[in-house]
Amino acid sequence: CAACYGVAIVLGLVMVAARGTALLWIGLVGVVLSLQYTGAPLRLVYRGLGEPVTALGFGPIMTIGAYEVCAREWSWPAIYASLPVAILIALVLYVNQVPDRAGDAAVGKRTLIVRWTPDRVRAAYVASTATAFALIAVGPLLGITPWWTLAGLATIPVARAVTRGLRTAYDRPYELMPSMQKNIVLHLATGLLLVAGWVVAGIVG
User: Fold this and answer.
1) Is the pTM of this model over 0.90?
2) How far is CA 124 from each of CA 121, 166, 200, rounded to the nearest angstrom?
3) For residue 9, what pLDDT is reported?
4) Which residues have CB under 8 Å from 105's CB, separation 6+?
């Protein structure tokens, strides 16, 4: 693990030298969040901050870092475009913690799943997926994202299926596994459809 961090940091510094110091601060934030996810002194996941940290790291930070490398400029539209995917990757962690809630509580991990009632967990999932899809739907209306990215809305039925699984199998881990798998598919498929939308928009204008 330390070797991987070392290689990543060296590669990052090479890109900083080629692309400018703005990339340094983006990378620094990413490294700190990664180390403090479970590491002392912050131990963010133990404080119920695993989901927002995951969303930030795999959404805006990763996206704006890549954009800075390629375009050498800041982009608010790029950050906006990353938000639905950021929410959905955080929800992968969120749902996967449901079967682990007793074990997490035993070792002091005060995750959202540990702290909240089942009804609140389900409500937060519904609200989060609704927010992700609302961002996809509103983006073209605001002129931020191309109309082709509305293809990402095609995965709404998958989100509904996961919600049903959380409702019917919350306390039965093995029965919940298909919903956990669908939740991963939700993130992957939505992200791929959004990327495809951007690619098509770039081709057809």
Assistant:
1) yes
2) 5, 11, 33
3) 83
4) 114
